[in-house]
Amino acid sequence: MRAFLPAFALILAACGNEAATPTFHAEGRPALLSEWGLVTTSGGQLVLSDGVEPYDLNTPLFTDHAGKLRTIWMPEGVTATYREGQVLDFPVGTVITKTFYYPVDDAGHVLRGDAGIQVSDTPETLDLDRVRLVETRLLIRREDGWTALPYVWNEDESDAELMRAGYSETLTLAEADGTLQDIHYLVPNVNQCAGCHATNNTTRELSPIGPAPRHLNRDFAYAEGVENQLTHFIATGYLAGAPDIDLAPRAAVWNDPDIPLATRARSYLDINCAHCHNPVGAADTSGLHLNFDAPVGPNLGICKPPIAAGPGSGGHRFDIVPGDPDASIFIYRMDSRQGDIMMPELGRSLVHAEGVELIRSWIAEMDGSCF
Questions:
Q1: What's the predicted TM-score (pTM) here?
Q2: Are 39 and 33 contacting, i.e. CB atoms less than 8 angstroms apart?
Q3: Are both 262 and 147 inside the same structural domain?
Q4: Count of alpha carbons within 13 angstroms of residue 42, beta-carbon side
Q5: Tens digit of pLDDT for each residue in 202-248?
Q6: Cβ partners under 8 Å of residue 57, min gap 6
Q7: Are residues 286 and 187 in the same domain?
Q8: Which domain holds residue 109?
Q9: I want to staple 251 with a disulfide (CB 3.0 to 4.6 A). Which of 33, 58, 136, 143 is the partner?
Q10: 371 assigned to some structural domain
C-alpha cells in the first residue's frame, strides 16, 4: 500500500501546482516533493517547472526495468563546470531529480519502462493515465555537500511524501509475451543512498553518478527540437568550460548493435558497477575496477581470483575466464537474485537478462586462458 498524505496537504499541493516555482531549501527535509517546486502534477500530467532541464544518459543504470525522468535545476546566476572523466562540478543550489515510473496496462500490471513505450506527448512530461509513478529521488547540493532525499508518490499521484526510512512495495510486471513476475521494489532510506552515491570510500561524501560528460554527450528531443545535451546546457547557462562537443567523450549505448561489443560491455559495467568498483570506491578492497578507463587486465576481472571467498564466488575461481562465461564469477553474480550473491547488490530485485547476455557475449569473445 502506498503512502497517503493528509487531506489538507493534498489541497495545498494541488493549489501549488498551478504556478510551481523551483525553490532551493538550504537546510531541512521538506515533507512534500511539491515544496521544491521542480516536478509537479497538473492537468493529468507530471510537468517540469521553468528552468528545470530534463536529461538522459547514453547507457542508464538498470533498476528493475523502471522508466526514469531525470532533471537538473540550478538557481539563477550559477553554472556547472565541465570536468573530464568526472561528473560535472555542480554549484551550491543545484537540485537533481530522478522520477521512477512504469507504464501500466488495462489490468493494472506495470510494463517495462525502459522498453521505449510512449507515455506522453513530449519527453519532458508523463501522462498520469499511462504511467504508475513510484518515487522521485532528489540530490541537493548544499554548502556542506550533497544530500539525498527519497519521495514516494501517493495513491492519486497528486504529490510525493518524504520517506526517510525507505519504502518497499511489490509490483506485478507483465512481459511482452504475457508472462507475469513480481518486482520487489525498494526505495532506499536516506542512509542507503550512500551505498551507490558515496563513490569515494575514504571521504564517504555523496555525489551524483550519471551527469558526467561521457554519459550526457547525446541528443535529447526537447520540446523545441532535438539537440545535443551538452550543447543545450551551455546554451541555457547551465554549463561552462566545456570543450568542442566533438572532442568530448561519449559513452556507448549498451544495446546499439552498431557499436563494438567490448565498448558496449564496458559502458554497461561503467554505469552499473563502477560507482563501487573503482580504485577509490566502496569496493576498493576487491581490486576490481570497472570504470570506463580501467586498463584491460586483472583489475578488470580477467583471470582475477576473488579477494574473499564465500557464496558470491559460486565455487568459481576467477571473475572472468576468457572464452568461458559460465566459469566466470561475473555471470554467476549478475544472473542471481539472492541477496548475498547478486551484483549489483542494490537497486534491483530482478535479473537484467539482456545485460547478462551482453556481458556473457563479451566474455565469450575474449581470447586467452587462465590455466
A1: 0.92
A2: yes
A3: no
A4: 16
A5: 888 889 999 999 999 999 999 999 999 999 999 999 999 999 999 99
A6: 70, 210, 215, 216, 218, 251, 271
A7: no
A8: 7-225
A9: 58
A10: no
